[in-house]
Specification:
The protein is elongated and about 85 Å long. It starts with 12 loop residues before the first strand and ends in a 15-residue tail after the last strand. Helix 6 links the parallel strand 5 and strand 6 (166-169). 44% of the residues are buried. By secondary structure, the protein is α/β, with parallel strands linked by helices. It is built from twelve helices and 14 strands. Strands 4-3-5-6-7-13 form a six-stranded parallel beta sheet, with helices on one face. The chain has a four-stranded parallel beta sheet with strand order 9-8-10-11, with helices on both faces.
Length: 362
């Protein structure tokens, strides 16, 4: 049985003066906690290292935690990390830093990491950067593992290697090659949006796709084509980089067509793209949602900042990060966690409505 949390030389740290100590004016040690709780030092290590489940009774674990609190005991993390050969640091690789979604992923990962005495360092690698700087060449010795979110195939390939455990978030599971995988059910999300538009009577749908070489966007395009394969609606597709101005320009020609030829709904791969569509619609004198329905994807803060507020898909970003960190901890414990797929939720707001009647329609 591996034991953690003991103090070489019997040294720990105290959170403040005036608390009980080890009895000789020294800082409390794990031996003092074990004595106060009436358990072995191994049991103290298991409990304070959060590895007690299935090995220590819950009542005993609580008694150990209470004794540690009363004594003001804190594990000597530096000594433990040196002993285990770990830094208790995970690297979270994301495409961009200025995104509500990736901020949520980080928050979820950091919350779980903190419970286990880990830190999470953010590193941005753009999804379309095939020659992005390698953050691992000099940092491998200072990391215990990597969590990579929404990465392009070439960027994921750069992360492969036997040096570090890897968890992939919102990424191609086929390219995982042994890494743990946590994905969002983006295909089902697109199907939810498409069925929402079909139920409103839309039969001419434009898909504004993200011009990004990424698994998540390929899945979205495939799912929409699958839903509309039966001919229930006309389906066109244009792409744009994930910028408001790019989206605005990408749809200008299509939305500028005569009323009988233009789409009645635009399904966008992100809320940012949807914001660009709203700008073009306004410039062309189209009313949303009376003349044109628009949907987003992500439910960023932007979704409720625009007018009308966006119908979009809510992604559980913090849950993605939390599951990713749990997966990394499992890998570090020698386990292979099963793949995780998290559901997404359609949020209906003011940017979608019944399709407008077409001239000459019954």
């Amino acid at each position: 049985m591996r034991t953690e949390g003991g103090d070489p030389g019997g040294h720990g740290s105290s959170s403040g003066a005036g608390r009980p100590t080890g009895g000789h004016g020294t800082r409390p040690t794990s031996r003092d906690v074990a004595r106060a709780a009436g358990v072995s030092q191994a049991a103290v290590s298991l409990v304070l290292g959060d590895k007690w489940r299935g090995r220590v009774a819950p009542t005993t674990a609580e008694r150990v935690r209470a004794a540690a609190r009363d004594l003001g005991y804190r594990p000597n993390l530096a000594a433990r990390n040196l002993r285990l050969g770990r830094t208790r640091t995970a690297l979270l690789v994301v495409p961009v830093l200025n995104s509500d979604f990736f901020a949520g992923v980080h928050a979820g990962a950091a919350r779980v990491a903190a419970r286990h005495g880990f830190g999470v360092v953010l590193y941005p690698v753009p999804t379309d950067a095939g020659s992005a700087p390698d953050p691992f060449e000099s940092a491998r010795a200072a990391l215990d593992g990597v969590i990579a979110s929404s990465m392009a195939p070439d960027a994921v390939a750069a992360l492969r290697g036997d040096e570090l455990p890897l968890v992939m978030l919102d990424s191609d599971p086929v390219a995982a090659h042994g890494a743990a995988v946590v994905n969002l059910d983006v295909g089902d999300g697109v199907r939810q949006v498409a069925r929402h538009l079909l139920a409103l009577g839309h039969r001419d749908v434009l898909h504004l796709g993200a011009d990004v070489d990424s698994w998540t966007f390929r899945v979205r395009a495939s799912a929409l084509a699958e839903v509309l394969r039966d001919g229930s609606a006309t389906h066109r597709r244009v792409t744009a980089p994930l910028r408001v101005d790019a989206a605005r320009d990408a749809v200008a020609d299509v939305l500028g067509l005569p009323v009988e030829e233009r789409p009645t709904a635009v399904l966008c791969d992100s809320d940012v793209l949807a914001a660009g569509v709203l700008k073009t619609a306004r410039r062309l004198g189209l009313r949303v949602p009376e003349d044109l329905s628009v949907t987003g994807f992500d439910d960023l803060s932007l979704a409720t900042a625009v007018e009308p507020e966006l119908t979009t898909l809510r992604l559980p970003a913090e849950d993605v990060g939390a599951h990713g960190m749990r997966g990394l901890l499992a890998l570090l414990d020698g386990e292979q966690p099963p793949p995780v797929t998290l559901p997404v939720e359609l949020v209906s707001r003011g940017s979608t409505a019944t399709a407008p009647a077409r001239r000459g329609a019954p």
